[in-house]
């Protein structure tokens, strides 16, 4: 699939993103983020979110007193975020997490929902870390989550199907993972069928989501190379130590 075709599919997927993840506990996740930021010495201030999607995390973070600037490569998701009722303290725009320049510093850089795991090549991964560091003064925080390698090996990727609906449409998404062991990557092939309940028309799309998984030592080496030091790593939301049962690990890196 060409880069243009992949972007087009990603944008189409953005139309159904909020529906597919409406059962996601955004409020609980933001409560965890606020607690974590306070633990790191950031009780208020300015945040930039790399990969903000439709802005649900960012909008909730403003309720906790933060100012949030979100960026996302999907024009569709940013358009959806911008068409919602304005929220004081939240803004967003289209941008690439590898190269976007805000022209100012922030108290913390957030990158959630495994955005870092989408950076499957070493060059892109280094670019994101360097870009995060460029948006922080010394002492600032880079907070992100990733797929955790030991859990991937222990649990192994499996085929999954998710179905969800609202009054207008129903969405079925089938995921077929292909494990690229030598690349530390799982290529998740999605087939999505969106049915219009009124007409019966079915819109279909296919996507490839390559996801990289990491060890803590690998991330520590990357941090040292790009000007960070790891403060901690823990299971996202629960705060438990990373283990073979922990697919999603949250890491806090402090800018040196």
Question: Can you tell me about this structure?
Answer:
By secondary structure, the protein is an alpha/beta fold. It folds into two domains: 3-149 and 212-255, Rossmann fold, CATH 3.40.50.150; 152-211, CAC2371-like domains (S-adenosyl-L-methionine-dependent methyltransferases, Single Sheet), CATH 2.20.130. 31% of the residues lie in helices and 38% in strands. It has helices at 3-20, 26-39, 56-63, 75-83, 122-134, 149-155, 216-226; strands spanning 45-50, 66-72, 90-94, 106-111, 136-148, 160-165, 169-180, 185-196, 202-214, 228-235, 248-255. Helix 5 (122-134) links the parallel strand 4 (106-111) and strand 5 (136-148).
List the helices and strands and how they pair.
Elements: H1 3-20, H2 26-39, E1 45-50, H3 56-63, E2 66-72, H4 75-83, E3 90-94, E4 106-111, H5 122-134, E5 136-148, H6 149-155, E6 160-165, E7 169-180, E8 185-196, E9 202-214, H7 216-226, E10 228-235, E11 248-255
Helix pairs in contact: 1-4, 2-3, 5-7
């Amino acid at each position: 699939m060409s880069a243009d075709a992949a972007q087009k599919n990603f944008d189409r997927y953005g139309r159904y993103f909020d529906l597919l993840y409406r059962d996601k506990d955004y409020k609980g996740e933001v409560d965890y983020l606020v607690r974590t930021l306070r633990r790191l010495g950031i009780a208020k201030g300015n945040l930039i979110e790399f990969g903000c999607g439709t802005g649900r995390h960012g909008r909730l973070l403003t309720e906790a007193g933060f100012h949030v600037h979100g960026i996302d490569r999907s024009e569709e998701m940013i358009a959806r975020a911008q068409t919602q009722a304005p929220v004081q303290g939240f803004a967003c725009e289209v941008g690439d997490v590898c190269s976007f320049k805000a022209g100012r510093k922030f108290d913390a850089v957030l990158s959630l929902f495994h955005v870092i795991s989408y950076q499957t090549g070493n060059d892109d991964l280094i670019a994101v870390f360097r870009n995060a560091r460029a948006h922080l003064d010394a002492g600032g925080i880079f907070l992100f989550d990733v797929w955790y390698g030991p859990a991937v090996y222990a649990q192994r990727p499996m085929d999954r199907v998710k179905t969800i609906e609202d009054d207008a449409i129903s969405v079925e998404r089938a995921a077929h993972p292909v494990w690229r062991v030598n690349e530390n990557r799982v290529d998740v092939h999605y087939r999505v069928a969106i049915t219009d309940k009124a007409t019966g028309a079915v819109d279909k799309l296919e996507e490839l989501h390559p996801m990289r998984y990491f060890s803590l030592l690998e991330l520590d080496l990357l941090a040292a190379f790009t000007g960070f030091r790891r403060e901690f790593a823990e299971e996202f939301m629960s705060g438990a130590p990373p283990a073979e049962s922990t697919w999603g690990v949250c890491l806090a890196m402090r800018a040196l």
